[in-house]
Amino acid sequence: MFNLQLGVGIGVYNVNTTGLFGAELGFAVTPDRRGYLILPFQVQFSSGTTVIIVPLGFEYDVPITIGSIKNLYLTPRLAVGYASLQVTGVDTLNGGYLAIEGGAKYVFRGRWNFGFDPVSLAVLFFGDNFQHVAAAVSYRLYVYVGLNF
How far apart, in Å, are the Cα atoms of 98 and each of 40, 122, 138, 145? Predict the structure, then answer.
C-alpha cells in the first residue's frame, strides 16, 4: 500500500504544535494480508523548526462492519526509528522516534484507502551519546488517502 498523510502534531511536552506531512509505504507480511511492515516517512514543521522522521513499523488491519458498511478496518500500529530535529540558527539534533498509533480506514473497491488516525502519540528522543537525553512528546492526528497495489 501507499498512503499520503496530512495532519497536525499538538505539543504535549517540550515541543510546539506542528503541521505534519507524510508518505507511507506498506508491505503485506501476514498470510491474511492484513499485517503490514510499514515505512511511514514523515515531516513535522512549524515556524523555524523541522522534524524529519524515518521509522519502521508494523500495522495490523482489524476488519469491522458497521451496519451495511463493509471494508472498514481498525488500524493499530507501532513504529520506531530515526528523527532529525532542525531548528533555525541551532545545530541539527539526531535522535530516536517511537509512535503508538491507531485509527480507522475504509478501503474502496479493494484499491483506494481513506483513513483517519485520531490516536497518535509520538515521542522523540534527542541527546549526546545518551548522556543528556531530552524527550519531546506530541499528540498527532491526521487523515490519509492512498492505494493498494
Answer: 12, 6, 11, 23
User: In the chain, what are the domains?
Assistant: 2-147 (2.40.160.20)
- Which pTM does this prediction carry? 0.90
Contacts 24+ apart (CB under 8 A), 67-74: 69/106, 71/106, 71/107, 71/108, 71/110, 72/104, 72/105, 72/106, 73/34, 73/104, 73/105, 73/106, 73/107, 74/102, 74/103, 74/104
Q: Determine the Cα–Cα distance for residues 65 and 99; give it in Å rounded to an integer.
A: 27
- Return the residue matching grid coordinates 499528540: 139
The whole-number average pLDDT for the span 101-109 is 96
Confidence tier at 120 by pLDDT (50, 70, 90): very high
* 40 neighbors 24 (Cβ within 8 angstroms): yes
